Amino acid sequence: MSLFHQGRIGHLSTPNRIVMAPLGRARNSEPGREPQHRSAVYYAQRASAGLLISEATHVSESSVSRPGTGAIHSVAQVAAWKTVTAAVHAAQGRIFQQLIHLGRKADPARLPGGALPVAPSAIAAIGEIATPAGPKPFPVPRVLEETEIPGLIGQFRNAIVNAHAAGFDGVELHAANGFLIDQFLRDGANQRGGAYGGSIENRTRFLLDIVDHAINVFGPSGVGVRLSPHATQDGLSDSDPTPLYAYIAAALNQRGIAYFHLIEPDATPEDAKLAPLLREIFKGPFILAGGFTQESAAAAVAAGRADFIAFGRLYIANPDLAERFRLGAALNHPDEATFYSGGDAGYIDYPTLAEQTAQAEHATS
User: CA angle, corner 72, sides to 70 and 75, nearest 5?
Assistant: First the structure.
């Protein structure tokens, strides 16, 4: 099998095995956090991917990061995202919306009333947050009361319903990179008792409750989950990750969801990789992400280590990445200075190969 074979994710047929990973680009409106026309252009430009996964999108006002990040909890946000999904579908593309709650990594300065962020336990993330007053250490979060957790799950359900109303083909639950769902999963951040702490079964309950709500809205074929067992950059850890992620894989397999999306850098030592075990447990489409090149991605798919490979940075500068891969064409290089700068520059002005060819022909004519 190659990167260019047709595939299937849930109810969707895909023209290739290339996925655009979720990429925050800080181009949404302020203070409404609604996508603008340029976002519809941006995603439609990249519609030749097998699947587009949207930027991480906040499920409520209690989850807020840098200015320009998107959200899906208001009527106006739903209306704005409809223009994005319509543009992608008009370009024959497929798109899931990634849903996120920051938990302990939210910025109190941007939360309603300056409230503390919430988390399963009162353990601060390691590192600094970029606040309006400059970088500051992550605050110690407020511990969620068990009676509050159903309401928080309800915020995810509302966002899932809104994503469906906005025309997305499905949702991806962001259970990776130290955000709220991940904080519940790993015992380095979740040291609570009760129904959502302690055992693996209890720590995974928050994620699986949300998955079940998503299935009720989209059906299992419209639900994906992203996980990052090796991410430790903000101090997140687990004392025994293998049985934790094996349990999650088995629970998601039982539910028959659309895909399992694992962040496991290709450079991870072979004896530390969890993908072989998780792929054996989860029988559905398996997406790998983590610094893959075209060559290493092709090798992973050909060897059956994954069904799809997700690319991030390469998609920033190459809207037609799949076509460039297919032709072995040179790639554009991303301009890091414009990753979060706002506006069209470095967002929708990277040329496709066809545009570059036309420009070259015009210059020599």
Answer: 120
Residue 95 belongs to what H/E stretch?
strand 95-100
The terminus-to-terminus CA distance of the chain in angstroms comes to 41
Phi, psi of 288 (to 5 degrees): -110, 140
Tokens encoding 144: 């969620």
Q: Which domains does the chain have, with CATH numbers?
A: 7-364 (3.20.20.70)
Residue 50 to residue 348: CA distance in whole angstroms: 20
> 87 with 44: CB under 8 angstroms?
yes
Question: Cis omega (within 30 of 0) on the bond before 31?
Answer: yes
Helix (H, G, I), strand (E, B) or coil at 59: coil
**Whole-number Å distance between alpha carbons of 340 and 68:** 8
pLDDT per position as a tens digit, 180-225: 999 999 999 999 999 999 999 999 999 999 999 999 999 999 999 9
Give the span between the Cα atoms of 202 and 199, in whole angstroms.
5
Identify the burial level of 87 via C-beta atoms within 10 angstroms of its C-beta, where 0-12 means exposed, 13-18 middle and 19 or more buried.
buried
pTM, rounded to two decimals: 0.96
Q: Which two tokens stand for residue 60?
A: 């409520």
Residue 161, classified by CB atoms within 10 Å of its CB into exposed (0-12), middle (13-18) or buried (19+), is middle
Residue 139: partners with Cβ closer than 8 Å, 6 or more residues away: 104, 108, 116, 117, 124
Q: Which of 83, 88, 78, 86 is nearest to 57 (CA)?
A: 78
Per-residue tokens: 337: 């200075």
255: enclosing H helix or E strand: helix 241-255
> What H or E segment, with its residue span, contains residue 294?
helix 294-302
In contact, 149 and 138? CB cutoff 8 Å: no
Closest C-alpha to 232, from 287, 275, 186, 192: 186
Tens digit of each residue's pLDDT (9 = 90 or more) over 80-134: 999 999 999 999 999 999 999 999 999 898 899 989 999 999 999 999 988 878 8
Residue 151 identity: G
How many other C-beta atoms can be found within 10 angstroms of the C-beta atom of residue 337? 9
